[in-house]
Specification:
Layout: H1 2-6, H2 26-37, H3 43-49, H4 54-65, H5 99-102, E1 104-108, E2 114-118, H6 123-134
Antiparallel strand pairs: 1-2
Amino acid sequence: MSDFIHRPQIEVLSAADGVRRRQWSDEDKLRIVEESFVGHRQVSATARRHGMCRSLLTIWRRQYRNGELGASRPVSFAPVTVTTDAPASRPGPVDPPDPSRTSQVEIALPNGRRLIVPTGVAPEALARILSVVDGQ
């Protein structure tokens, strides 16, 4: 009986007993990062809600802004078609049309919508239009 009293108890811990690291899919990362950008939510609140470290979410947000997050997805190219509309024939001398006023660019958005804009549109105006049409 005295042997049990004086022996220290030893507890063996192994790596299998602990919580393993979670593997986040690219879709989950994108969903969580986009949720953290919505409204006025804080990074720490979003991280807490998903049971993750705030610094990990900060790293994902930086990767998202740099275009590195979800980069394993295949790159897609937009088809571009250049066409010339022949003006209807009119009698008499005709001035050649100004290409800057008659040229247009058609943009196919990922949500299936198409946007046709003149080539001379200001980049800032185009960015505002795209943000409304694309729903971002």
